UniProtKB/TrEMBL annotation:
Domain NAD(P)-binding, chain residue ranges per copy: 8-159
Listed Pfam families: NAD_binding_10
InterPro entries named in the record: NAD(P)-bd_dom, NAD(P)-bd_dom_sf
Name of the protein in its database record: Uncharacterized protein YbjT (DUF2867 family)
Length: 207
């Protein structure tokens, strides 16, 4: 049996990862850290925390980092970096100190610390930082555009993208086709429940 820590559990990918983990008989406990409460579940220990002052996490076997924001919500590059890089890396470090040996991280297609694009450079930097934490197993998932999930379905964007991809899919290289959040969640969960030693990168076309 496995205990997991999830951050970003209220987001499109994180919420589906949480649901899958709670339904999986291989998982006996899930800890979710965030700024908003979550519905109760017998296997879930959800904690509302201030990430800026967080200095400890519960002992766990693995951590899933699905936390992220958008430039519009963050408003500044500094705030964007604090959420997408600093908080993610800090939680990864605390989880490792608490006994976690495995980490799965949501990144992005094109992530590269040398990129001229701020977003892709930031994602590349967080990948490098998490790799240096010292986990026995690290899986980086780099999806292209995401479809599905509560947030995208709220305004119908996910549904429109799914419909569009069904029509023009054959014309779009596999690398750039949108990926459903449920598929990303499944890959993340499999990565921490069946870990392989070393660092693995799952590019969008393999999801």
């Amino acid at each position: 049996m496995t205990s997991l820590l999830i951050i970003g559990a209220t987001g499109a990918v994180g919420s589906r990862t949480l649901a899958a983990a709670l339904a999986d008989e291989r998982v006996d406990r899930v800890f979710a850290l965030g700024r908003r409460p979550l519905p109760e579940h017998p296997k879930l220990d959800a904690r509302v925390v201030d990430f800026d002052t967080l200095d400890t996490v519960p002992p766990v076997d693995a951590v899933v980092c699905a936390l992220g924001t958008t430039r519009r919500d963050a408003e500044t590059r500094e705030a964007y970096r604090r959420i997408d890089h600093d908080i993610v890396v800090r939680v990864a470090e605390l989880a490792r100190e608490a006994g976690a040996t495995t980490c799965a991280l949501v990144s992005s297609l094109g992530a590269n610390p040398a990129s001229r694009t701020f977003y892709l450079r930031l994602k590349g930097e967080v990948e490098e930082s998490v790799r240096r934490v010292g986990f026995e197993s690290v899986t980086v998932v780099r999806p292209s555009g995401l479809v599905g999930g509560e947030r995208t379905r709220k305004n119908g964007l996910g549904d429109r993208l799914v419909e569009a991809s069904a029509v023009i899919g054959p014309l779009v290289p596999a690398r750039y086709r949108p990926v459903h959040v449920d598929r990303v969640a499944a890959v993340l969960l499999d990565a921490v429940l069946s870990p392989e030693a070393g660092i693995r990168v799952r590019e969008s076309e393999t999801l």
